[in-house]
Amino acid sequence: MKKSQLFALSCLAFIGGIILSQLIQLPWDNFYNFVAAISLLILIVTLWIKKNFGLTVPILFGTVFLLLGIWRFGLSQPIIDKNHIANYHNQTIKLTGRVVDEPDIRLTRRKLTIGRIKAEGIGFLKGRILVNAPNYPEYNYGDLLQVKCELTAGGIIEDFDYGKFLNAKNIYAVCHQPENILLINNNLTISQEIRQRILAVKYKYKQIVDHAVPYPQSEILASLVLGLRRGIPENILNNFRQTGLSHIIAVSGLNVSIITLLLMNGFIAIGFRRRYAFAAATISLIIFLIMIGFQASSIRAGIMGFAALLAMQVGRLKNGINLLLLAAFILLLINPKLLLGDVGFQLSFLAMLGIMYLGQPIEKFLERIRVPKFFEIRSSLMMTLSAQAMVLPLIVYYFGNLSVIAPVANALILPLLPLITISGFGLGIVGFIILPLAHFIGYIIAILIGWIMMVTSLGARLPYGSFNLEKIDFVWIALIYILIGWSIRLLKTKKFS
């Protein structure tokens, strides 16, 4: 077995161990599992030194990383005792804690992630709390708050496991109706001050967008480049959902990965050499992460996007599976709960798989129907369609909406995203220097986003353009992905022409 294949096998076994741990209550102690993995690893090294390979080493490698995946997931599970916040569900407690993440600001309320918690009469507690606070007075990142509230578990919301989603972020309790919120102080550490200043730049940028771009295009632009979607009207959000385009106005791995690749294509299209296009796209990705304030979800998406960029830069996007697996391995090593608890992680991983394995046959189809190569139109369209084809079953499973017109809507809209994103970055930079000039850029962006709004509006009104489905059993989704994998294998062996 080649080293690259052995690496892929190890990563997949590690991922398999995490899945196995979540699906089955394993009978053995996590410590003994770790000891077994290390013992097998020593055996592998011994066999490697003696050059006694065969099938023994791959089997042992797979077993080791399977056990390590089980061990890592077990290590991530909290011990629910008197020192953990989850132990106080359905109880009202008075606590002091700091806002440890950027507030999720909605129209009427803001969601605050509270960490470093000290409960009155109890002491310091592990885990975080999500507090639904009013928008006024404003509470922001870094504030030290005192609050009294009843704690509840995340629970299930319309078949969505909200608790598992929150647990992936180390949030183990929710406070829906806080009482007596009191700002104690906002003294910050150096790292917190740096992040707060980044967030201040972000909100200043939002003010520039509001001045330079008319509403509601300004809100869509803010969602695209800042991850702020609180001001988008509900009817427009519904249009995006009906046309299968919600992913472009969400800070998700799917969105970031696709836009990052499209940016590189865009730089190549305007004449950049590949290595300079890679550098420009990487810088754009970093700027994007800074603008949205280094949220945990966006950093994960950025890592996946950079892995895809790196594969594309060396000209091996179709064979970049090991880079993708490495990115997934690193992210899951840090937080194994992402695998089944974070939909964005799953979508970004599948999107990249779609580009790598479905990209070539879709590009050949686009060539047959004479889609032009000018300005990288064909390549960009290939990426968007192949990513969408791979994530569609999972989107239907989680959100219950099957958009028949999604492929057409994506084809009409996604090629514009690099131009809108680059222009959006430029708008912010120019706006900080010469605000009137930003208005000119803003009008151009408004026209482009106006096209997106028109496509989503017309698509949402088409009869039978989308269907709301009942909850589908995951067995059917698994069978669909098995069928997709089988089809990819047939395409790879050229049994289809």
Q: Tags for this entry?
A:
two-stranded antiparallel sheet, globular, transmembrane helix, 3 domains, eight-stranded mixed sheet, single chain, OB fold (Dihydrolipoamide Acetyltransferase, E2P), 497 residues
Protein model, in words:
The protein has helices at residues 3-23, 30-49, 56-76, 162-167, 190-212, 217-226, 234-242, 253-269, 274-291, 296-313, 321-334, 338-341, 343-368, 377-399, 406-413, 417-433, 435-461, 474-492, and strands at 92-99, 104-105, 109-119, 123-125, 128-134, 144-150, 156-157, 160-161, 171-175, 179-185, 401-403, 466-468. It folds into three domains: 3-76; 85-187, OB fold (Dihydrolipoamide Acetyltransferase, E2P) (Beta Barrel), CATH 2.40.50; 204-492, no CATH class. Helix content is 61%, strand content 12%. Helix 5 (190-212) runs antiparallel to helix 6 (217-226) and helix 8 packs parallel to helix 10. It has 497 residues and is of the alpha+beta class. The relative contact order is 0.09. It contains 18 helices and twelve strands.
Topology:
Elements: H1 3-23, H2 30-49, H3 56-76, E1 92-99, E2 104-105, E3 109-119, E4 123-125, E5 128-134, E6 144-150, E7 156-157, E8 160-161, H4 162-167, E9 171-175, E10 179-185, H5 190-212, H6 217-226, H7 234-242, H8 253-269, H9 274-291, H10 296-313, H11 321-334, H12 338-341, H13 343-368, H14 377-399, E11 401-403, H15 406-413, H16 417-433, H17 435-461, E12 466-468, H18 474-492
Helix pairs in contact: 1-3, 1-11, 2-3, 5-6, 5-16, 5-17, 6-17, 7-17, 8-9, 8-10, 8-13, 8-14, 8-16, 9-10, 10-11, 10-13, 13-14, 14-15, 14-18, 16-17
